[in-house]
Amino acid sequence: MERDLARILIPRDEIQRRVGELATEIAETYGEEDAHGLVIVPVLAGSIIFVADLIRCLPFKMNIGLMTISRYRGKTTEGGDTKVVQDLDVDIRNRHVLVVDDILDTGKTLRTVGEQLRKRQPASLRICTLLRKPAKAPKDLVADFVGFDIEDAFVVGYGLDYNDQYRNWPDIGVLKAECYQ
Ligand code: IMP
Ligand code: MG
Questions:
Q1: Ligand nearest to the CA of 113
Q2: Residue 102, ligand 1, Cβ within 6 A
Q3: Which CATH number characterizes residue 26's domain?
Q4: Mind telling me the catalytic residues?
Q5: Is residue 54 part of a domain?
Q6: Is position 25 within any domain?
Q7: What's the number of domains the chain is made of?
Q8: Which one of 38, 77, 131, 157 counts the least CB within 10 Å of its CB?
Q9: How does pLDDT run across 125-167, given as a tens digit for each residue?
């Protein structure tokens, strides 16, 4: 797996440090009172590793509602429609909702998630993304919590995949061109 990476972009210890900082930011934003009844919505499958680390740093009770969105088939990060593969089965009406995703690229995925969830009238809706590609992310799609802004490269590891592989690599790295099919 390691030999498929051109370079490490964000090493595991830096990820852990930043995840801790994000948890502090999130805890300060919600406070004890608002956090009561918070629903965390991880966007599957890319956010699995990130959300597991993040929620263990959060000091309050929460519910977790899973949502699966599919976007890419294969190497390209362009085109392709978003599809809700598995919808949330938690009632979020009048509850505070925090969507957690791996990466904000073109914003199509998070826009779809936002539209779907807003219809259900949550008390508030915020977005936390581990990575963001500022070169491509639309200016009108605001993420409330962002781990790292990165260059426009295709990255894998720490939950991020290429063809559903590499999610278990603990660092975030750039995939070698020859590993694209
Ligand atoms: P968006 O809809 O273009 O913002 O893309 C978001 C989704 O595309 C993420 O949740 C990822 O699953 C996937 N994605 C975008 N960029 C990358 C990347 O560099 N590596 C792996 N997956 C990516
Ligand atoms: Mg994803």
A1: 1
A2: yes
A3: 3.40.50.2020
A4: 105
A5: yes
A6: yes
A7: 1
A8: 77
A9: 999 999 999 988 788 889 999 999 999 999 999 999 999 999 9
